[in-house]
């Protein structure tokens, strides 16, 4: 505005008009002494400061003629006198106070208006003090910035004002001597997670951003992906989880009870001794015994525990409540399920160590190789220590490579990293967490592989040109990860020192997650916090396995249904032929008897030739029929041909029943597919 006013021939008149308007001479009341609400007082202060230091000062620097006209300073001088600015408090303190009031009192102001008001205050702050002053003042808060401690609004206002000056006048906030820019960025993410105003303020400086990894793919994005199916985020998975309905029926026939489960999907847990695997399982059982609540994800059902898992819970629940869980020795398989008509799951727990899978016994190796989901456990001694994390990253990476070598064609298996014992690492902050996952639940992993330019607000960040950079960016800028400083530090440490493993994970799967858990037992029956997040790693894992299972199984069912219909059509045709052969045998047998017992002279003469022909036909019909019956191998004790054909006919009816059962099972899968919103 100063440059606009300067161009006018009547610039002095314009200033006079502004002055009189602000003074209230022309009837404006918002800046008079009658305006005593906090927000009106704030706006009056902002206008006074802006008027004197933004408008007049810039004009005076360019043209000394403005210095000699005192009439146009009446509003500012009246404000100084009334408010005792420069006497009871400095103008710096006044600006800090105004900014603090402004930050605390945001009612009735749109965020864009708040940004404008803050910029006005920041401009005056810069004009009064300059870049060097702001650098010096900012260093006074170096420790507070590093620790992200809660500050009074006046102190926080001073930090923001100094950052604004460094951004606008100093060439960027990354150039403050003796202030770690990495620490400053963490503080900015923390502040931005607290309130939209701070987020938009730093975004307007291109310091903080939140690239779009979450919104629905449509329009040009969808069209591009359809034209390039190799980029699709829902690439077909190959986990070989699908079941045969015929095998399932055979299993049901041979297993009259639930002493064993049909082909449960295998899950494997990795983690050192004491990392919390068995404790998490126990806490999971505790949660499974509770009724479902609204916080559980859509599509979840009550979880049933297999007998081994139920025994594990009953044997350990007392020790769990005492905090005295014994270490696991050897290994144990446990089963659980939500609906046996859909799928059951088997999870393997073993006495953790860092030995490689090729050093395990053959049975444990086989369980590991056949796993279709991998859970990696880190306890606080791992995820709060740089060297421990780097070591674990190498160990877990070698575990994953070993599994991949055993399953070279399998991709997109669920892989989870589980941070255990967070009640120890986060202490009292655990109840403040808004999410049990580090990666947003609605995150589309294909955004790691393919990021559309218009979805990126940080277009010049070189780190975003590689998948791990995008993976890291998504997690670091996810607001829920920045609300708590301790969790924020843990996540930064994890991303900085677990990179080797994470890079490998995003190469082999689109189904990955990081969980925050605490398997500590509840203090008492009213404790709604502990255990924390113990259900989610298991439900997330089985949900991904279930989706794949449904897709693969329905494909198998469709194939088997087609085969059954082919067999039915062939069997129907064969049964017709068998009845016809049976009729021919009956007829031939009757003729043989007639020719063998005839007393008619003219027949007796030709009987040998006729009998030979009939016997040959009988043998041919009999052998053909026996061969067809042997093919179907009817389970009847009698040697009667007709009984055998009828038994085969009964098996055809059973095939019809099988098709109906297959339809029923497939309908259940279809319903579950809709519940899980599988496309």
How would you describe what is shown here?
- The protein has helices at 2-7, 11-23, 38-62, 74-83, 91-104, 111-139, 142-147, 153-168, 181-194, 196-204, 219-227, 245-254, 277-288, 307-322, 362-370, 380-383, 386-406, 422-425, 446-449, 467-476, 485-497, 499-508, 536-596, 601-632, 641-675, and strands spanning 265-270, 304-305, 331-339, 343-350, 374-378, 415-419, 512-516.
- With 679 residues, it is mainly alpha-helical.
- A seven-stranded mixed β-sheet has the order 2-3-4-1-5-6-7, with helices on both faces.
- A hairpin with a 3-residue loop joins strand 3 and strand 4 (343-350).
- Helix 6 packs across helix 10 (196-204).
- The two termini are 56 Å apart.
């Amino acid at each position: 505005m100063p440059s606009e006013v300067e161009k006018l021939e009547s610039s002095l008149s314009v200033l006079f008009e502004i002055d009189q308007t602000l003074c209230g001479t022309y009837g404006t009341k918002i800046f008079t002494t009658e305006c005593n609400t906090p927000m009106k007082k704030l706006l009056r202060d902002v206008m006074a400061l802006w008027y004197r230091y933004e408008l007049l000062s810039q004009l005076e620097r360019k043209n000394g003629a403005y210095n000699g006209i005192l009439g146009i300073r009446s509003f500012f001088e009246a404000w100084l006198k009334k408010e005792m600015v420069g006497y009871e408090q400095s103008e710096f303190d006044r600006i800090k106070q105004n900014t603090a009031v402004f930050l605390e009192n945001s009612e009735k102001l749109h965020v864009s208006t708040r940004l404008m008001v803050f910029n006005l205050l920041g401009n005056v702050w810069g004009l009064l003090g300059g870049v060097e002053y702001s650098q010096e003042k900012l260093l006074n808060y170096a420790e507070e910035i590093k620790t992200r401690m809660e500050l009074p609004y006046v102190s926080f206002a001073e930090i923001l004002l100094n950052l604004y000056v460094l951004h606008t006048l100093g060439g960027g906030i990354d150039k403050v001597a003796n202030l770690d820019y990495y620490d400053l960025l963490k503080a900015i993410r923390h502040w931005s997670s607290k309130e939209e105003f701070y987020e938009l303020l730093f975004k307007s400086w291109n310091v903080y951003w939140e690239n779009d990894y979450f919104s629905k793919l449509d329009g040009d994005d969808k069209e591009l992906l359809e034209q390039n199916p190799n980029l699709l985020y829902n690439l077909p998975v190959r986990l070989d989880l699908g079941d045969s309905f015929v095998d399932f029926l055979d299993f049901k026939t041979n297993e009259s009870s639930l002493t064993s489960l049909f082909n449960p999907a295998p899950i494997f847990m990795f983690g050192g001794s004491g990392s919390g695997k068995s404790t998490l399982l126990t806490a999971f059982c505790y949660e499974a015994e509770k009724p479902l609540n609204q916080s559980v994800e859509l599509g979840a059902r009550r979880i049933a525990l297999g007998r081994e898992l139920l025994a594990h819970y009953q044997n350990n629940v007392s020790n769990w409540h005492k905090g005295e869980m014994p270490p696991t020795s050897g290994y144990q398989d446990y089963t659980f399920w939500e609906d046996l008509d859909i799928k059951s799951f088997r999870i393997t727990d073993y006495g953790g160590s860092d030995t490689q899978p090729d050093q395990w016994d053959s049975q444990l190796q086989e369980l590991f190789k056949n796993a279709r989901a991998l859970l990696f456990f880190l306890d606080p001694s791992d995820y709060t220590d740089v060297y421990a994390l780097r070591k674990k990253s190498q160990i877990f990476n070698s575990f994953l490579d070993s599994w991949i070598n055993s399953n070279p064609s399998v991709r997109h298996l669920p892989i989870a990293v589980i941070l255990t014992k967070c009640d120890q690492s986060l202490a009292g902050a655990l109840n403040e967490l808004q999410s049990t996952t580090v990666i947003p639940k609605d995150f589309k992993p294909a955004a790691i592989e393919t990021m559309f330019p218009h979805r990126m607000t940080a277009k010049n960040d070189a780190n975003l040109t590689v998948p791990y950079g995008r993976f890291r960016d998504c997690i670091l800028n996810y607001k829920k990860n920045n609300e708590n400083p301790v969790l924020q530090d843990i996540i930064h440490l994890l991303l900085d020192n677990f990179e080797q493993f994470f890079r490998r994970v995003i190469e082999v799967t689109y189904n990955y997650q990081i969980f925050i858990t605490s398997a500590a037992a509840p203090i008492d029956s009213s404790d709604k916090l502990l255990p924390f997040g113990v259900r989610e790693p298991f439900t997330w894992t089985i949900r991904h396995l279930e989706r794949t299972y449904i897709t693969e199984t329905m494909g198998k069912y469709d194939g088997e249904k087609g085969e059954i219909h082919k067999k039915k059509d062939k069997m129907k045709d064969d049964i017709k032929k068998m009845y016809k052969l049976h009729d021919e045998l009956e007829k031939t047998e009757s003729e043989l008897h007639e020719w063998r017992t005839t007393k008619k002279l003219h027949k007796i003469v030709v009987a040998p030739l006729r009998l030979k022909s009939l016997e040959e036909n009988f043998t041919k019909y009999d052998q053909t029929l026996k061969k067809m019956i042997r093919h179907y191998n009817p389970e009847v004790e009698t040697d009667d041909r007709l009984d055998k054909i009828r038994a085969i006919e009964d098996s055809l009816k059973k095939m019809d029943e099988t098709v109906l059962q297959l339809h029923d099972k497939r309908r259940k899968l279809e319903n579950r597919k809709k519940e899980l919103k599988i496309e």
